[in-house]
Structure formats: C-alpha cells, structure tokens
Amino acid sequence: MEEDRTSFNLTVESARLETALKDRRRYSKTEEGDKDRRNFDWIACKDFTVEEGKRQLREYISTWDIQPCWLYSLDFLCSTEEEEHSIFCHYRARFSTPTPQRPIQGTVSVYFVVAVSKVMPDTLPVEVVFIIESNRLVHTPGRTTFREKWLADVIESKALLRREVDL
C-alpha cells in the first residue's frame, strides 16, 4: 500500500495484533468472526483503501464513550502482507487531553490492525483488532466496550514513571 515492513519497524503492539489475527483465523470458526464484525459496518475487502480505513476507524472511535476533552490524531503506519492470504494495515491513534494552560501533556496510543483478506470472498468485511499502548489484551470491535479509564491509566502510569525518573 504506502509503506512496507522494511521502511517501518512494527511496534510490539502492532506485531501482537497481527499475530492475534493470524491465530484467530487458524483456531476460530468463520461464522463466529462474521458475527463479531456485524456490530460495526466495516467496509468490504474489495472496497478497502488506506484512506477509507482511516475514515472507518475515525467513525468507530466516535462510538466510544469518552469525554470530549480527549483529542486524537490517527496515522497510517504501514502495511504488511501474509503471503497470499491477507494484507494487514497498521494504524495508530494518539490520544491526549490538552488544555490552554497545559497544551502539551502525556499521550497514549491505541494501535489498530485492519486485515484485508485476499482469499475469502471480497464482499466480506475487513477484520479489525486494536490494543492499547503498554497493554497485552487484544480487543475486537463488537466484543469489547472501550473504556476511557484505559486511556487515563496509561497517562497516569507514564506520569508516575516520569516523576520517579526525575528524582
């Protein structure tokens, strides 16, 4: 798509998401995966583009129950391929709560991988998973209810670490 693995080192989070998608295909039933994706109308594989992926992720993030003080930027990081099976598009949403008094504050990243199948019927929707920075749990839209507390916890952990290191 725009970049490949050689020009961008995947984050630990992105690599974990890619592995989770590959494992899911290996060990789960197709019907179950299709049912999960119906909770949000993801685009069909045949219609997917990097920009459409960004648009859909923004739309999905807008369904989260978070305070309006959380602002974010969404970036496409890279795409990787799994031989003939899938293309994985990696995105990062970086959240912060800037204020006029403190415009530069801590950030927390949420990493997304959108899997575009090259072997299933191209009318099937893409698969999407995400992970919060410094966490291990892989979340699936439709199975997970996003919690604002996850963002706040990462910001707080970073602030505590910063205070400890500054001593």
UniProtKB/TrEMBL annotation:
GO cellular component: cAMP-dependent protein kinase complex
Signal peptide (UniProt feature, chain positions): none
GO molecular function: protein kinase A regulatory subunit binding
InterPro entries: AKAP, AKAP_28
Protein's recorded name: A-kinase anchor protein 14
